[in-house]
Amino acid sequence: DTGVSQDPRHKITKRGQNVTFRCDPISEHNRLYWYRQTLGQGPEFLTYFQNEAQLEKSRLLSDRFSAERPKGSFSTLEIQRTEQGDSAMYLCASSLTDGNSPLHFGNGTRLTVT
Amino acid sequence: DAKTTQPTSMDCAEGRAANLPCNHSTISGNEYVYWYRQIHSQGPQYIIHGLKNNETNEMASLIITEDRKSSTLILPHATLRDTAVYYCISKGNNDMRFGAGTRLTVKP
After folding, report:
1. What tens digit of pLDDT does each residue of A46-95 get?
2. From the CA of A108, how many Å to the nearest CA of chain B?
3. Cα–Cα distance between A92 and A22 in angstroms, integer?
4. Residue A28, min C-alpha distance to chain B (Å)
5. List of residues 6+ apart from B25 with CB closer than 8 A
6. Is the separation of the CB atoms in B73 and B35 below 8 Å?
7. N or C: which terminus of chain A carries fewer CB neighbours within 10 A?
8. pLDDT of residue A2
9. Which residues from A are below 8 Å from B55, CB to CB?
10. Exposure string over B82-97, b if 16+ CB within 10 A, otherwise e
11. What DSSP element (H or E) covers A5?
């Protein structure tokens, strides 16, 4: 399978714990995106990278959230001191650098904070 | 990126064409129209995109009006597996912003 891969698929954690998610993009894609999706809503943009550079961050990305893409390949999204409101599906997508190339999404990591 | 508006929900009979409309009246000249769909518990699936010409692929057809203020996604022979939320997005060179989409239900 050469699509976008996310790990884990599901994560249950207690409030206050830290969690980290991983995304492996399609190999030739330079851009990598993180989105969050809550029930009944469309995906909300969080941040994106071109290679290892983080080019844009949404206001939704509070200081408890940090994303990295150290070698321009896989990316991690860490949430520190999780809150119940962080419960959501976290989606990763990748695309070619051409601004009009479509994004290709993984199947997400579902986070439940108890 | 321009805002799009779509109906909240639509029904379609199995085997018939499903025509999903989208308004993007504030779209700018360099913004493409993209369509995605999402089935429960999966990530959004890319369907098709276009700038001003009509487009067709193995999944669907995209009809864009001449003034580019609206478009229609056509699934020519809808099946039960096409039941999903369909998102229409207009995007330039930046990130992709999703609305709430149209929930299409294909009925037997």
Report:
1. 999 999 999 989 988 889 999 999 988 999 999 999 999 999 999 999 99
2. 6
3. 9
4. 17
5. B69, B70
6. yes
7. N
8. 75
9. none
10. bbbbbbbbbbeeebbb
11. strand A5-7
Q: Which residue has the tokens 């959501």?
A: A88
- A61 secondary structure, DSSP code: S
Q: Closest Cα partner for A108 from A18, A60, A39?
A: A39
Q: Which of B43, B45, B98 sits opposite A42 (nearest CB)?
A: B98
Closest CA to B63 of B43, B42, B49: B49
**B46 with A102: Cβ contact below 8 A:** yes
Contact B95 A48 (CB under 8 A): yes
pLDDT, tens digit (0-9, with 9 covering 90-100), for B49-92: 999 989 999 999 999 999 999 999 999 999 999 999 999 998 87
Decide if B49 and A100 are in contact by the 8 Å CB cutoff: yes
Question: Is B46's CB within 8 Å of A43's CB?
Answer: no
Tokens 């904070």 belong to A113
